[in-house]
Amino acid sequence: MNFCSHCGQRVRFAIPEGDDRLRYLCDGCGTIHYQNPRIVAGTLPVRDGRVLLCRRAISPRKGYWTLPAGFMENAETTLEAAARETWEEACARVEVHNLYTLINLPHINQVYMIFLADLKGGFAAGPESLEVAMFTEEEIPWDELAFPTIERTLRHYFDDRLGEVFPLHISDIGEEDRERYFGSA
Amino acid sequence: MNFCSHCGQRVRFAIPEGDDRLRYLCDGCGTIHYQNPRIVAGTLPVRDGRVLLCRRAISPRKGYWTLPAGFMENAETTLEAAARETWEEACARVEVHNLYTLINLPHINQVYMIFLADLKGGFAAGPESLEVAMFTEEEIPWDELAFPTIERTLRHYFDDRLGEVFPLHISDIGEEDRERYFGSA
């Protein structure tokens, strides 16, 4: 951020009076530009013991497999966002059930929210996917998953399936998890 | 948003190619300025059957009672945000337990996440609170609560306490719930 989005003046990066964090401040109009984490909402679509995965057609991680998920938009709910992303990336309708994983990624300011869902009807690659397919546990391409959040969600799922109970799992992804996927920065 | 925060040019509000939503676009540097919902994280601190509430010292809803909660910041987890807000608003340390309510407010682009917590040690009014106090169910100032999200979380809590099971409750706040608190716009 270089300029105030309200008045167009150059901003400075400093701690506002009464605050304890660095913010972008506009001395022209007085606006404090807060920046906050974004929610990535998606689903784990299941049918007949198989899970749906999408192979990414776009960066980052083009060519790698992911669950359908993406940035939640304004004016929608988390469930609507999860179902919309599933429709956009996999052309798949789902019946969304419980929130299944909530994963914090504080170093990139994201919170993943993946809902367990039943796949209804067909599926196909949307514009952001190269292909969409169903996988048994044995068929999952573990070495070709796009993000650590996806691997963690899938591992929870196959573990929980043994007991047929699927509680919410809350966890964090740290730098070390990311380095395993992307190398160190 | 009037100006591009990257290059300072005036932005326009239009649907980018390949998208289906209105965004702020900069024709100068090509930046698309996405806007996304924000997370409000907080706790429901409990001790000896009483819950902690804060009376707001700031707008909106100054003078009304709320649970300690506020906007999640970059570089923190949802649990850290909830505990930090509890410390800032009520000078209270908590042991944070399960995520208890997840409430979507699509018309104001917010997602509330309230965690059940045990209050540890003392409490006092932080700079954003006029006072902080503990309430039994009978003592809750139902007509002086700040937001519908707070009322809903408290009602779930006292209902669930009858069975001593506190599952995650996911719901939405609509215009009609807000009008009951704030009148129609």
TrEMBL record, chains A, B:
InterPro entries: NUDIX_hydrolase-like_dom_sf, NUDIX_hydrolase_dom, Nudix_N. It comes from Modicisalibacter luteus. It holds the Pfam family Zn_ribbon_Nudix. It is an enzyme of class 3 (hydrolase). One of its GO terms (molecular function) is hydrolase activity. Its EC number is 3.6.-.-. This is NUDIX hydrolase. Keywords: Hydrolase. Residues 36-158 form the Nudix hydrolase domain.
